[in-house]
Write a structure and sequence with these properties.
It contains three helices and five strands, in the order βααββαββ. By secondary structure, it is α+β, with helices and mostly antiparallel strands. Helix 1 runs antiparallel to helix 2 and helix 2 runs antiparallel to helix 3.
Length: 125
Amino acid sequence: MGSSSVAAVPRTPDAGRRLRSLLWSTFECWGCDGELLDDACLVLSELVGNAVRHAEGESVQVRLRRSEGVLRIAVADGSIAPPAPRGARLDDESGRGMVIVEALSLRWGWEPSAAGKVVWADVPC
């Protein structure tokens, strides 16, 4: 049987911190493996960071859904532009977010929504 949690926060620079707190408390409530929390937090941070930097709208919405040992992290934002992993040079200060998501998740993807898009990643839980 699955469990889920949903939250929305203002699209501000501290959105990632606020949503990581939600993830920590959700992991604890669900009894998930604490060793997997670091990877899940990093994936969440990258998805939320992309929404804050590149999307439109006043808020970022996150849905956490656990089912059969997998946590789906889904971040909704107001942009219709698809996410795209890109190569970053060694001296670039950004541009590695989706590459990190790709490396730490079992799979990831995105889908259009009425208000923009939802980017999701599945991580072990």
